[in-house]
Amino acid sequence: MKFDEFIGEIQHRLELPDTGRTLRAVRATLMTLGERIPAGNAEDFAASLPIEIGWYMTGAVHEHGQRFDWREFVERVSEITNEDGADAAYQARVIVDFVRGAVPESDFRQLRDQLPESPDDENWGKLFELTDSGGWEARAESDPGTDRSQ
Known about the structure:
Elements: H1 3-14, H2 19-36, H3 39-46, H4 51-54, H5 70-81, H6 85-100, H7 105-113, H8 129-132, H9 135-142
Protein name: DUF2267 domain-containing protein
Organism: Natronomonas salsuginis
InterPro entries: DUF2267 (IPR018727), DUF2267_sf (IPR038282)
């Protein structure tokens, strides 16, 4: 997939009015994920993405392997995108769901393995709620409204 196709599909799914906001959402989500996971995992994950997109997980990150939970992830993404927390969380879920189809299943599993999903731990399961419910396409078909709750 090429950069323009990737960004265009994300823009469509997020229903954002312009490419700038779409790029900010993608950059914020992938860069913040890149900060959370080890560098080697980020490189593996990014290798299947368009080079300009993959760079957000690797070249744009100053320190990989930081420890933070879902709540702090949403705060960081929100700060970068200048969106409220609910919108930032929704955008991250949609982006991760889309990226799931662009990377090998083993790389996606490796990403999930790096992020504790238990509500009693770091609660990263919230990032994968859309993916686990059948993905954006299934939700769009069954429910034209969107759930933007954190």
